[in-house]
Design goal:
The structure is a single chain. With 208 residues, the chain is mainly alpha-helical. It is 50% helix and 12% strand. It has a three-stranded antiparallel β-sheet, with no helix packed on it. A three-stranded mixed β-sheet has the order 2-6-3. The longest helix has 35 residues. One of its GO terms (cellular component) is mitochondrial outer membrane. Pfam families: MIEAP (PF16026).
Length: 208
């Protein structure tokens, strides 16, 4: 049996969507710049600093989505044992996750992100320092990315590769870009997408 009335997750979807999109923008405007300032005390190369932050964002979304999948599987397995309606099992599972997002082990995701960054060949760090210095940025990104998976439809970040053709609908050019260059040299911040449509532009550097 399906309930005629939508569950909590569906009822709050629009307000949660608006909050999370705004929060993603806030992280770009505040926590990202804080992390940039912090990294500049260890690394003089601005390109490397921006690459580190971009990869932290990408890895945070990846880790949070994996954690969400595992969390959802555990919740579904537990709730299916006694589920009888009136909501569908999927709606009941989603409602439970939305109500209990504090059970998400965000520190495990942060650790996973730092592990991935330590073996990423595109970024390097002075050996005496650890990527843990930007763990507060990573934590906030993981939290937002996890919550974005509870939306209908979920939000994600666009896939970006060095050397791709610059896309006006996907990115803004950084102020230090060559504005006539057609290719992305590297990315500063990922674009946010919903159903493969960009809803918040990312930032990229174009150079010849």
């Amino acid at each position: 049996l399906r309930s005629c009335s939508p569950g909590r997750a569906r009822l709050t979807n629009a307000s949660r969507h608006a909050y999370l999109v705004a929060r993603f923008g806030d992280i770009y405007a505040q926590e990202r710049l804080d992390a940039e300032t912090l990294l500049r005390t260890y690394i003089s190369d601005m390109e490397m600093v921006q690459r580190i932050i971009y990869i932290a964002a990408v890895e945070s979304f990846h880790a949070a989505k994996m954690a969400y999948r595992h969390f959802k599987m555990r919740v579904r397995k537990t709730l299916s044992l006694g589920h009888s309606g009136p909501e569908s099992l999927e709606d009941t599972v989603l409602d439970y996750i939305v109500r209990h997002e504090d059970l998400y082990d965000v520190q495990a995701s942060v650790n996973e992100v730092i592990r991935s960054m330590n073996i990423n060949p595109k970024i390097s760090f002075p050996p005496e320092i650890d990527f843990i210095v930007i763990s507060s940025l990573i934590r906030e990104l993981c939290r937002v990315a996890f919550s974005m998976q509870t939306l209908i439809p979920p939000l994600d970040i666009a896939f970006g590769t060095d050397g791709e053709l610059f896309n006006e609908t996907k990115y803004r050019r950084s102020f230090d870009s060559d504005f006539t260059a057609p290719l992305v040299a590297y990315h500063v911040w990922p674009a946010l997408i919903e159903n493969d449509i960009v809803i918040v532009k990312g930032e990229a550097v174009t150079k010849r």
